[in-house]
UniProtKB/TrEMBL annotation:
InterPro entries: UDP_GlcNAc_Epimerase_2_dom, WecB-like
Protein name per Swiss-Prot or TrEMBL: UDP-N-acetylglucosamine 2-epimerase (non-hydrolyzing)
This enzyme's EC code(s): 5.1.3.14
Pfam families listed in its UniProt record: Epimerase_2
Enzyme class: isomerase
Transmembrane portions of the chain: none
Keywords of the record: Isomerase
Entries under NCBIfam families matching the protein: wecB
Organism the protein comes from: Clostridium oceanicum
Boundaries of every UDP-N-acetylglucosamine 2-epimerase domain copy: 24-367
Length: 382
């Protein structure tokens, strides 16, 4: 039997988390030969995920450099993948989401006239500079993709409005929910003892991440001032801020929150630790995209520290709320969840619209359908 030759490409930790369960699913399919290529746009954080899911790349471009620029990343990915594609001649290249690796990977495949499959396709804010450069990365990737694996009906609608043919769109759910089935454990013990000493049952523990470029400067300052006021006003609140390694972010966070009681400033955790911290915490405050999908799966309310989101589904069902970076508004919405049981219950019990743990299976089936290995188009995630 002639197999479908696929190369799956990713380069950052968020991509790896969401592509790992798909890689595992493709390995099970006898009709498919899948090879993994990592760009290592982020080296250390990527390697953590590869180890967690026991994935050994077939190709490692190892492009990361100190103080790398978007132009430099794009150039190195294009040049590295050209050699891989010419040698391997895959039938399909899979990329994920909205990173520079994603866009450059799709462009490199397009130059070689190779079919492109875009996992997590169709997310939009409709503002090309927010988030930057992700909004244009995913939009440009979508314009080149032959197969579009949209996580939700809303994402599918965005693609249809952009002229993508319905036959080329598959609504699958989000693979991050598949990944969490691998990582979350009820009696989990953290590798950092500081996290094991926190009273998650009796304290209202707020997990925080905030590091996006758009929030550098005044945005991060406002967020930190809100967190400072919140923890000082509520004795039952503890904050765990996973502080990005970028010095622009770290300097601001440390200057405002350093040394405060019940505020834990920690380096970013690996994937398994992050998922299990979410599972134990009371609520999440973040400017990340992925956490907006992950936390609702665990029944945790999310306050999004951004003015817009490319993931509107959770806002619509009520498990996520946009609060931006205004200090007073952040405080108001956080205190509502801290003090009002009904508000907290309404958000924590809202249905997660992002997946049921079967997205990877739907994507694999969709690939088989496209290559005429399956007769019927797979049913959409609803």
């Amino acid at each position: 039997m002639e197999k479908i030759n696929i190369i799956t490409i990713f380069g950052t930790r968020p991509e790896a988390i969401k592509m790992a369960p798909l890689v595992k699913e493709l390995e099970k399919r006898e009709e498919i030969c899948n090879k993994v290529c990592v760009t290592a746009q982020h080296r250390e954080m990527l390697d953590q995920v590869l180890d967690l899911f026991d994935i050994k790349p077939d190709f490692d471009l190892n492009i990361m450099k100190s103080k790398q620029t978007l132009t430099g990343i794009t150039n190195r990915v294009l040049e590295g993948l050209e050699d891989v594609f010419i040698k391997e001649k895959p039938d399909l290249v899979l990329v994920h989401g909205d990173t520079t690796t994603t866009f450059a990977g799709a462009l490199a495949a397009f130059y070689q006239k190779i079919n492109i499959g875009h996992v997590e396709a169709g997310l939009r804010t409709f503002d090309k500079y927010f988030p930057f450069p992700e909004e244009m990365n995913r939009k440009l990737t979508g314009s080149m993709a032959d197969l579009n694996f949209a996580p939700t009906k809303s994402s599918k609608s965005n693609l249809l409005r952009e002229g993508i043919k319905e036959k080329d769109i598959f609504v699958t759910g989000n693979t991050v929910i598949d990944a969490m089935n691998f990582t979350v454990e009820e009696d989990y013990k953290f590798s950092r003892e500081e996290l094991n000493t926190i009273d998650y049952k009796n304290k209202k523990v707020i997990m925080v991440t905030a590091h996006r470029r758009e929030n550098w400067g005044e945005g991060i300052e406002n967020i930190c001032n809100a967190l400072k006021d919140i923890v000082c006003a509520h004795e039952d609140v503890e904050i765990i801020y996973l502080v990005h390694l970028n010095p622009v972010v770290r300097n601001t966070v440390n200057s405002i929150l350093g040394g405060l009681k019940r505020v834990h400033l920690l380096d970013p955790l690996d994937t398994k630790e992050t998922h299990n911290l979410m599972n134990k915490c009371y609520m999440v405050m973040t400017d990340s995209g992925g956490l907006q999908e992950e936390a609702p799966h665990l029944g945790k309310p999310v306050l999004v520290l951004r003015g817009v989101t490319e993931r509107p589904e959770a806002v619509e069902v009520g498990t996520v709320k946009l609060v931006g970076t205004d200090t007073n508004f952040i405080k108001k919405e956080a205190e509502k969840l801290i003090t009002d049981k009904e508000s907290y219950s309404n958000m924590s019990k809202a249905t997660n619209p992002y997946g049921d743990g079967n997205a990877s299976k739907r994507i694999a089936d969709s690939i088989l359908y496209h290559f005429k290995k399956l007769k019927d188009k797979p049913e959409e995630f609803k």
